[in-house]
Amino acid sequence: MNTAIKVIDTLKDAGFEGYIVGGAVRDLLLGKAPQDVDVASSALPQQVKALFKRTVDTGIDHGTVLVLLDGEGIEVTTFRTESGYSDNRRPDSVEFVLSLKEDLRRRDFTINAMAMTENQEIIDPFGGQEDLQNQIIRAVGNPDERFEEDALRMLRAIRFTGQLDFIIDMKTLHSIRRHARLIKAIAVERLKSEIDKIFVNPRTQKSMAYLWDSVLTKFLPAGELFQVDWIPYKSNGTSTFGWFYLLHQQNRQFSAVKEYRFSNEEKRLIEKSLELTKLETWDQWTYYHYSIEQLEMAALVTDNVENLTAAKQQLPIQSKSDIAANGLDLMQWSGDKSGPWLKVWIEKMEKLIVYGELENDKELIKDWFKNEYHRHA
Ligand code: ATP
Ligand code: MG
User: Fold this and answer.
1) pLDDT digits (tens, 9 = 90+) for 302-311
2) What is the average pLDDT across 228-242?
3) Which atom of ligand 1 is found nearest the CA of 150?
4) DSSP structural state of residue 54
5) The whole model's pTM is what?
6) How far is the CA of 234 from the centre of ligand 2 (A)?
7) How many Å lie between the centroid of ligand 2 and the Cα of residue 112?
8) Is the pLDDT of residue 272 over 70?
9) Which atom belonging to ligand 1 lies closest to the Cα atom of 197?
10) How far is the CA of 229 from the centre of ligand 1 (A)?
11) Which SUPFAM superfamilies match (predicted)?
12) Which residues pair with residue 75 across a beta bridge?
């Protein structure tokens, strides 16, 4: 906040306008700490860049420059209007305009279409404060037009219901139902980012009920999967858990949601955690093979109350590299060349050590190996 005000002061000293806008104003009025503070200004991107020492061109084509100041990043965006939404997605071109009001008019909902001066005066041309008071999400202007311009806004409305515990205004909701199919034009990355936010918000169930009611589920990739019982769901703070919960409830494999283009890391966490929920019992070998993250995620839906961190720490070894003997040792002790037998014996040794049946000590491993190997050979 203070940093944003400093940025505004600098803009004003240079003869430009500058306001805090969008979600930050909404959150401040709700008494919440805003996640990120955006500034709208009459200065053009090049003019913004000339005024601050450290800037990053995060979205310069859209008029946005990230100003780095006091260890914070403030996005400064030139007042803009958007024209020519020919395909229900982003605008074909961005026009810079000279007025704050035009900038606010292109925003999605009245509660997100307010600005604040450096003296904390609120500029609210569309009744955002009243809607905030009544806990209503309402499109700015004509909802049909707004959803035709950018269909993602329909999903954003639904995301905000759970995030803020608000309801969607009737006219806006009816318009969403009528335009639901337009969601098909939206890039999956944008869809996923909103769905991710639904999964981490405090009332996922509320957003999910709206998702169903709005018929967006009919047109979203894998949309029918979202219809599960969300009442027992409690976010663990990661969106990955939401995807995992949904697949687990539906008894489905990861591939059912692969359209959403997960990172390899996220995909692996989900797949491994699903695997864990299918195991009948968890023992040392399980704790050894799965990461704490995977175990914790699976435990959230399997009522496993064990202290997983402790269970993992108590293992004699954490990975193969902790074993006091290696493949070369086994080759030397057996006198045999490398071959498929080696992998088999390394795993035997690993398993016994993990289960605590063989001590992780080179001499003891040697004794065990010499005995057993020759008996089997
Ligand atoms: P949060 O940061 O809590 O997720 P936010 O409202 O700040 O919520 P952002 O995605 O950060 O959401 O967007 C910042 C602001 O930009 C919004 O408050 C809104 O004014 C505007 N905005 C964002 N996306 C759109 C959109 N698709 N159409 C119109 N305006 C938008
Ligand atoms: Mg934001």
Assistant:
1) 988 889 999 9
2) 96
3) 27
4) S
5) 0.90
6) 23
7) 10
8) yes
9) 4
10) 29
11) Nucleotidyltransferase (SSF81301), Poly A polymerase C-terminal region-like (SSF81891)
12) 38, 66
User: Which of 62, 74, 103, 108 to mutate to test ligand 1, by most ligand atoms within 8 A of the CB atom?
Assistant: 108
Closest CA to 64 of 45, 89, 91: 45
SS (H, E, C) 229-297: CCCCCCCCCCHHHHHHHHHHHHCCCHHHHHHHCCCHHHHHHHHHHHHHHHCCCCCHHHHHHCCHHHHHH
CA of 180 to the centre of ligand 2 (A): 24
User: What's the rounded Cα separation, in Å, for the pair 156 and 198?
Assistant: 9
- Enumerate residues lining ligand 1, CB below 6 A: 22-23, 35-36, 38, 107-108, 112-113, 150, 152-153, 156
**What span, in angstroms and rounded, lies between the C-alpha atoms of 107 and 125?**
12
Strand stretches in 42-169, DSSP E: 55-59, 64-69, 72-78, 80-83, 93-96, 115-116, 122-123, 136-137, 167-168
57 φ/ψ angles, rounded to the nearest 5 degrees:
-80, 80
Report helix, strand or coil for 117: coil
Averaged pLDDT of the chain: 94
Find the mean pLDDT for residues 252-269.
Answer: 97
Predicted pLDDT at 82 = 61
Nearest ligand to the C-alpha of residue 39? 1
Please say whether the beta carbons of 104 and 87 come within 8 A: no
Q: Which atom of ligand 1 is nearest to the CA of 36?
A: 2
309-325 pLDDT, tens per residue?
Answer: 999 999 999 999 999 99
Ligand 1: centre distance to CA 21 (Å): 10
Burial class (CB in 10 A: 0-12, 13-18, 19+), 343: exposed
pLDDT at 86 over 70: no
Per-residue pLDDT, 55 = 97
Q: Which residue in the block uniquely carries the two structure tokens 């089997």?
A: 376
How many CA atoms does the CB half-sphere of 233 hold within 13 Å? 31
CB-CB contact of 115 with 131 (8 Å): no
Q: Which residues contact 266 (CB under 8 A, 6 or more apart)?
A: 240, 243
CA of 126 to the centre of ligand 2 (A): 19
Lookup: tokens for 126:
């569309």
How far, in Å, CA of 262 to CA of 260, rounded? 6
